[in-house]
Amino acid sequence: MPNALATTPVAAKPAATVPAAPAESAPAIERAAVFTAKGLAKTYDMGEFRVHALMDVDLTIYKGEFIVLLGASGSGKSTLLNILGGLDRPSSGTAQFADHDLTHASDDELTLYRRDHVGFVFQFYNLIPSLTVRENVELVTDIAKDPMLALEALTRVGLAERVDHFPSQLSGGEQ
Q1: Under CATH, to which class is 4-121 assigned?
Q2: What's the whole-number mean pLDDT along residues 126-149?
Q3: Which of 17, 56, 78, 158 is found 20 to 30 A from 69 (Cα to Cα)?
């Protein structure tokens, strides 16, 4: 299954509209790599079957770059994002974010990496149904560096009146 990655430069202009500058006057633009992956592979053992979710992926993402991951269902997009996000480890290869070696990081190091550098927007809400809205938000305070009070966060998003409700009592948008 092929893995697909498309990069899109922000505010790109057609080459014909950009005047060429003499080589000696063009300043060198330093492109700092934020993520670097080399030979990433992820294989899941499913009993007598082996599922190769990623195979030999090389990837460099630079600061300020906007990328889009494209691929068919099952092509490894979520697996790659889980590895880059510190939720999973590759079976082989290396993954690096700035000075963080994600491949060999301990569970505690990955937790700190996720807390300090990663933001996830999950496809599903991941709310715990037996906890109130306030209690679900308070869970974040266990891992956040400088958390705001749950009531303050809920007030900011217009849910102050719903703090004692359960997720099943909220609309999809409120969740």
Answers
A1: alpha beta
A2: 85
A3: 17
